[in-house]
Target: tRNA-uridine aminocarboxypropyltransferase
Amino acid sequence: MVKGKGVEHEALQSAGHKSIAAGGSDVFKVLQLFKVSSEAELREKADARVKAKEEVLRIVHDPDVPGVEKQRLRCNYVHSYGRALFSCPGCWLLPGLCVCSLLHHIEHKTKVIVSCHPAEWCKSSNTGTAAALSTGGSVLLRGYGEHDVQLEAAFADPSTTKAILWPGETAILPQELKAIADRQTQGRVTLIAIDAHWNGARHLVGTFPPDMLRVKLPPESVLTEGPRSLLSPLRFYRGDVGANGRVSTLEAIAALLYELEGDRAKYDLMLENLKIKVDAVLIQKSRPPLYNTVGAQQGAKVRHEAQILARRHIEELTKQGKSVEDLGRGLMKYLKEANDE
Ligand SMILES: [Zn+2]
Model:
């Protein structure tokens, strides 16, 4: 969970070389991309991350530290530093590929909270964060103090009917949830979605109040219209949607909101947002975009410009007889393989 490679390491290496100043305006553009004002700031941030990671690893390997404390420190670390130092805090994509401003903002009557497992936090291919951005909801890291307080406050809020999106025998159907909410809270619903791999999800749901309502998608859900999850190019889901229910968090939330609110246009926009995110992640992973979204167009442009920038910078350094183990190379590497999933 605290593993990380790529951007921050490269940035540190880069910042450590005096030759960084040689690239002039190109260096400035790179710093802009990383959203820092100076090389010193870049170095400071990268240093702080390395130190924090070393400290967490030291404690995690200490047999005398209780498990709960280790988990708390891990959560603090991933919340502060994510998986890559310069990734966007909103969409968790790397600099230049942020899709926050590209996503449609889709108002829903239902409040959406995504409870995120630490192992899923800041993963570029995560879709819970895109679902929250799309609906004006929140993503809360389970195990992180401040977020747990917010989640528990939501659990205790009597003005809304809370339900966890969770399959199983005891789960009710969306129409039943709607009826309960109409009776008890004037139709107000808070939907809590769990964002984690299966084992992590089971663990997370076990930390929720046992009497909380659980809601599932009906078998004839709108999701079964498509044969495969739109996220399958990134998560290698096998099988059809209908056969094993493997869909992304965003798709499940969108389908449930459609069941509750019945607005097809909003459902379609939610899926469009997912396509934008998937295209941007594919570009980040040096793979061709699939859905030809605005995210794909912007991502391809950013990537192309950054490659030119990096190449120019490397040429300049080579001309000066300086090491290319520098910002240009760092940026190139970042574009090529920066992801730690
Ligand atoms: Zn973003």
